[in-house]
Amino acid sequence: MNLSVSTPRNAHQTSHRTTHRLSINAPADLVFSMLRDASHWPYLDGLTVYSERVSGDDATHELRTSVVSNGALSSSHSWRVFDAASHRAEFQQLDLEPPLLQLGGDWEIRPTDGPSVVTLNHGFEVDDEHLAERINQIIEDYSRRELEALRASCERLSVLLQHHAPQGQPAARSITEPIAGPATQAAAEPSTQPAAQEA
């Protein structure tokens, strides 16, 4: 299920796109699970102070998050769609306010013989192109922070799972379901600031 938000376009509106990529030393299944179950973010990522799935299921759901960025609290409301077979996720921001007309993007986790390669794309439109560069910089800054927080969380959990796995069993690679538990339940699109949040 894809959620599209239609907004009137004029000749001066331009679509903007950013791409960020990072290698994470953890199995793709684990990284995907951490992204899908955002309830762990306040415990692990150092950015999120609140995260709640308010409707939907593991495949498609509505998410609300709040983060602290640049000393200010910012909230996000988004719709997320997950494809476990391809390790992909799409997100679309809801309840946008000017100057943003549209904000969304996608995550892709690519398994390799070594670390998993994680790509985060954002696309946005604004009603004032003079503000596009400022919003782009907000997205650039938060995307880097979000990917680094994801890397640290996944690599830490991967090490713990390997340490406690039965001898000879690669436990971390067996994770295909969302992680559960009050302190490890598995958001910049981010969640991010209004101009960068996905979640």
Structure description:
With about 200 residues, the protein is of the alpha+beta class. It contains 3 helices and 7 strands, in the order βααββββββα. Strands 1-7-6-5-4-3-2 form a 7-stranded antiparallel β-sheet. A hairpin with a 6-residue loop joins strand 5 and strand 6. The radius of gyration is 17 Å and the shape is globular.
Key structural traits:
199 residues; alpha+beta; 3 helices; 7 strands; 34% strand
- Shape category: globular
> What is the SS-derived class?
alpha+beta
Main beta sheet strand tally, sense and closure: 7 strands, antiparallel
Distance between the termini: 17 Å
Could you list the spans in which at least 5 consecutive residues all have pLDDT below 50?
1-9, 172-195
In short:
This protein has 3 helices and 7 strands; from the N terminus they run E-H-H-E-E-E-E-E-E-H. It is α+β, with helices and mostly antiparallel strands and 199 residues long.
In terms of topology, how is this protein built?
Elements: E1 16-24, H1 28-36, H2 41-44, E2 48-56, E3 60-69, E4 72-83, E5 88-93, E6 100-110, E7 116-126, H3 132-164
Antiparallel strand pairs: 1-7, 2-3, 3-4, 4-5, 5-6, 6-7
